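Predict structure. Input: F-box domain-containing protein, 565 residues.
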Amino acid sequence: MGLLDLPTELAVQIFGLLDVNDLISSRLICRSTNAIYNGSSLLQYLFSLRVAGFIDHGGHMNVRHKLHLLRTQEERWRNLDLSNKVTVETQHTPSNIYDLSGGVYVLGDSERDIIRRRTLSLRYLDLHEASLKSGLVTEAWPQLSFGAKIIDIGLALEEHDLVAVISRKKRGSSSRIDLLLRNFSTGKNHASAAQPDIFVNEYHGMQSPRFSIMIEIVGTYLLLLVTIPSHISSMDTLFLYNWMTGGLHYREEAPPGTWSGFVFLSPECVVIPNMTTNTLDIYHIDSAGDFEWIRRLALPYLVTNATILHVACRADPNPWGRDSKGYQNRHGHGRAQPPFGSDPENAVVLFKLHTRRFIEAMATPFTFIVHRSALLRFACMRNLAYPDEPDLEDEGVIVEWEDWGPANTRWGGLEEERSRWITCTAGQRQVLLKGNKIVVRDYNPFEVRRVLATHGTAGSPGGVEYDEIQAVEGSLTIRNGQRTVTVVTGPSICEGGVVLENNVESSLPYVEITAEDEVDYEGMLVNDERLIGLCVNPQFEQTFTTVERLDIFSLSSFGLDIVST
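Output follows.
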């Protein structure tokens, strides 16, 4: 019996396991396969998910509705449709603490402490609920109080409905740091945490230490980085906890100025930029919870007497733990959960570097983008990150920049670094401001191929109305009314200035769409379903990112459209 002789339902399941390219080839060479595809909403949905770089979140929504929502959302992103807009005012005094995760925007509340701007509680905005409103929204945001001064937070809303709070208690010249584990939906002790309050460390002999904290939660792991940049004698410290048991798996210290951030590449692999060695260091977390250094990816060489001052990095969404059971509706938090979202493995990682040569007064910023999967691949560690994969040949501990970087990254300078917010990527998309215009870049290789196939290097419009098409070596620009689309496939040069030995060449392909209407935002945020433009109080913009108002642009019809079953 041949494949096409099987019952259609079984054939659909088999075709649904194919790679995207294999399914495309099968449809092109076999009419029967193409007919099966055209007749199956499930197969079309699975195919569309993979092309978009998304995964299904489960739930009870029927497949036809999910397919409709996905196609509509992707089309709105391609057109950068900003017609669905709502404006929300902040009714509290924001601090500098913020996060964007799980469809929720969190802002610290200084509770009218406009001088020191200490974070005394958290306020949050459900972006889905806000998007369903219209005009100007002025209601007070819900508040979470923990009876402590907050110096940073970490969120794992989809996986655990968890907010991890780092609190500080000051006694004279000593500062005690604690980790508080709470259900985000209630603010109460997290039901899965055996020790909801965990002592982290106590720091002595510091009158006013300014802590720099980073927290990420994946599965049962909570990785915490504590640095004090203002105190050159204070060590950078990594803590790895099992947040459910409260146990400390691992602790490691490094000289000050070594670390400032990290990103989970998989549930057991972490990349940590090393500012001393000018490398990306990749670690594997073994079954005992110990860190094993497995690979070092070199960055472009610095000139003599130049150094990296700070590296901020982020990828969204985070991977989930191996034992996670999917999107967590069981917590009863009441927030609407979208039927699909970005696949963590396909997401891009954003790195923001601040560098300086000792004789220069000003720092020189650089940014670069790379896929999570590329970092894992060039770390030669897919066998540990994904045990079912065959082992790859070990090519040595250090991978030179020329061997991994140029083809797999895209570098930028001051323009890309303009925003103070790191929450400007979601999945494979990045948002930035060029002058006063909103720009979205999509690093999805399937989107790059789609635009090139639609328009072609010869400027064929493919049935789409356009004003102008320009093709130059390595890029294609399509102007259509108030949108300009540019496909960049060739190399670009980022000038090394006074800190890099050479200019940096990079060639990760992307599609860039620019909205030609000018806006007045200090920064832009993004998640899978929406863009957020931030307006700040000009009185404090040099010292605080005091968000007064945000414009939410919804590119998803989730919660709005109803499709018949």
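Residues 381-387, 389-396, 458-465 have pLDDT under 50 and may be disordered.
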